[in-house]
From TrEMBL:
Gene3D superfamilies: Glutaredoxin (3.40.30.10). It comes from the Bacteria. One of its GO terms (biological process) is cell redox homeostasis. GO terms for molecular function: protein-disulfide reductase activity. Coiled coil: none annotated. PROSITE patterns: THIOREDOXIN_2. InterPro entries: Thioredoxin-like_sf, Thioredoxin_domain. GO terms for cellular component: cytosol. It comes from Granulicella aggregans. Residues 1-116 form the Thioredoxin domain. This is Thioredoxin 1. It holds the Pfam family Thioredoxin.
């Protein structure tokens, strides 16, 4: 699937801490693999959620096949896994979320709403 605009920013082990770990405010990170069927199903929905969020939250993507150290650091056991961070600290997690806008929207935004 070709995405005209990618609203989910890819990060690697080299760029993660600078772009995600030290970022203030809410961040969602998708840990995925390009060989994962559930990840492919989730992709267009995640793009829609990321586009809707705009500047409210940042959505990033980590390919665990390439960045296994990040997967170990965040104890990722399956894909897709969404990890929500606030000021660099994990505040929520969704493993294998249903690829619907409502479920994904709730998974990404609820941890931040609960802290407010």
């Amino acid at each position: 699937m070709t995405v005209a605009t990618d609203f989910v920013r890819p990060v690697t082990g080299e760029t993660f801490d600078a772009l995600v770990g030290t970022r203030s405010g809410p961040v969602a990170v998708e840990f995925m693999s390009y060989g994962c069927e559930h990840c492919r199903l989730l992709e267009p929905v995640l793009q829609e959620v990321a586009e809707t969020l705009g500047s409210q939250e940042a959505v990033f993507r980590v390919n665990i096949a390439v960045d296994q150290e990040l997967a170990k650091r965040y104890q990722i056991e399956g894909t897709p896994t969404l990890v929500m961070l606030l000021n660099g600290e994990e505040v929520g997690r969704a493993v294998g979320p249903d690829p619907s806008v409502k479920v994904l929207w709730d998974a990404v935004t609820r941890p931040f709403e609960e802290l407010a």
